[in-house]
Design goal:
Number of domains: 1
Membrane topology: Multi-pass membrane protein
Radius of gyration: 23 Å
Protein name: O-antigen ligase-related domain-containing protein
Strand order of the largest sheet: 1-2
Organism: Pseudomonas panipatensis
Strand content: under 5%
Keywords: Membrane, Transmembrane, Transmembrane helix
Oligomer: single chain
Number of helices: 21
Shape: globular
Subcellular location: Membrane
């Protein structure tokens, strides 16, 4: 029997059974879920695209599948199940040649077995270190999903569209709620609707950040980090395309810039500014104008919203409360390393409960805190090899439709890494790191398409055969 007919029969039987056991509304929701699961099993790419859409719109919405987990991570696990099933049936291409970036990431994942065991034995906590470790590994695995499912350029473009659609929906929701409530706490009813966990603690945190814009990413700094990751991609994708794709990309870029100001994330502001300056120095068209437009938008928002004036007046001040906390974190960090030289593992996030230690707002030092010095060095090796594979050629960069996804994803990963100097989110924050590694995998695929053959030729023939500085059009 054809698989399509079998799926239709299974859905029909499931729908009939659910109508007998549940209310019509719940039965309809359940059968939609069953149909989605079966569709992903049949088409694994659909699972990755749905992840990109929902992870950018409502990243921490939860579902109870015997254990409570986020919808985003459930989709990743289901997609991996579909990939393994299709691999058994030999319906997916076998990728035998793994690049150095993938090999070093695998080394990092294997190395974390050591801090995981150390943390299990040395940290006293009620949470499950095993579950947290496996979830972290699942989030890192989006790079390998990208390499398996996005081999064709049209599939990579579909992924970018889903990322931008989800981001646009998130921005429209967040800015709309903030305009109506003028407080981060206005997001609390929305997060309740999305079935977020720990709502009481979440509402307390949103009330404490009332002058800054809330979003489904919960913390304004996390919102800023995601903007740093995705805005360069939206900007390049919008400029290089026409029609609805241009409208989608530029809408995300403009609304994202406004959201960045409203959530007042210093790290994201600085990182995006530095990346835009780098792009303007490489002669990427319109980046200079975008810097001027961003400055004009900032002035307009500051003039029209007094709380933003107060926030910006102290945001880069040494007396800023957030700055003082970060200074204390760096001052206390050597004590944390001395107390846990092999890392604290995965039972808890820094700081360790019951100690007088503090956490650390730095991407690389957070790797040291959680996995020891070896974990940080392996992460540096991964990003170094990524940069060697995907860096642009010397000289001006001409933005075209052919290289827009490569340039936007490259700049986005760069901005995320620069923001790591100020925040730690792209080290162990679930779902956020899944999007980071997904974008890094997307960038690897585009770079190998654009540069792979030429750089392989250069290695074989020596420096005499220098390729053109411009990406292929």
């Amino acid at each position: 029997m054809p698989l399509g007919k079998l799926i239709a029969i299974v859905i029909g039987l499931a729908f009939g059974g659910l109508l007998l056991a549940l209310s019509p509304a719940k039965a309809a929701a359940a059968v939609v879920g069953v149909a989605a699961v079966l569709s992903i099993v049949r088409y694994p790419l659909a699972g990755l695209l749905l992840f990109a859409l929902l992870a950018t719109f409502m990243p921490y919405s939860t579902v109870n599948l015997g254990i409570r987990t986020t919808v985003s991570e459930a989709l990743l696990a289901l997609t991996w199940g579909a990939v393994l099933w299709h691999s058994l049936l030999s319906q997916l291409p076998v990728i035998r040649d793994k690049g150095p970036t993938e090999r070093w990431l695998l080394a990092l994942m294997l190395f974390t077995c050591l801090p995981f065991v150390v943390g299990q034995l040395s940290i006293q906590a009620q949470t499950s270190g095993l579950a947290n470790w496996l979830r972290w590994l699942l989030n890192l695995s989006t790079l390998f999903l990208a390499l398996r499912l996005l081999q064709e350029p049209d599939k990579r473009e579909k992924l970018v569209v889903c990322l931008l659609l989800g981001t646009l929906a998130m921005l429209l929701l967040s800015i709309g709620v903030f305009i109506r409530s003028r407080s981060a706490s206005g997001m609390a009813p929305v997060l309740t609707l999305f079935h977020y966990a720990n709502l009481e603690n979440l509402e307390f945190g949103l009330n404490a950040l009332s002058s800054r814009m809330g979003s489904p990413w919960m913390h304004p700094n996390a919102t800023g980090g995601i903007m740093a990751l995705l805005l360069p991609l939206a900007f390049c994708f919008g400029l290089a395309n026409q029609g609805w794709r241009r409208l989608l990309g530029l809408s995300v870029a403009v609304l994202g810039a406004a959201a960045l100001l409203l959530c007042s994330s210093r790290g994201a502001m600085v990182s995006l500014t530095l990346v835009l300056i780098w792009m303007s120095l490489r002669k990427v068209r319109y980046t200079g104008r975008l810097l001027l437009l961003g400055a004009g938008l900032a002035v307009l928002l500051v003039m029209s919203y007094p709380p933003l004036q107060e926030r910006l007046a102290t945001i880069f001040s040494p007396q800023n409360a957030s700055t003082e906390v970060r200074v204390d974190e760096y001052r206390m960090f050597p004590k944390a390393v001395a107390a846990y030289p092999l890392g604290i593992g995965f039972k808890v996030d820094p700081p360790v409960p019951g100690t007088n230690l503090l956490g650390i707002s730095n991407l690389w030092l957070n790797f040291v805190y959680k996995t020891g010095l070896g974990g940080m060095l392996l992460f540096i090796a991964v990003t170094w090899h990524w940069w060697r594979e995907t860096r642009p050629e010397p000289g001006p960069i001409r933005l075209t439709r052919d290289n827009a996804i490569w340039l936007g994803s490259c700049a986005g990963v760069m901005a995320a890494l620069v923001s790591g100097l100020f925040d730690h989110y792209f080290s162990f924050a679930l779902v956020m790191i899944a999007l980071f590694w997904l974008l890094l995998g997307l960038n690897l695929l585009e770079a190998r398409r654009l540069f792979g053959q030429r750089r392989a030729t250069r290695k074989l023939d020596g420096p005499a055969l220098r390729p053109s500085a411009r990406p292929v059009e």
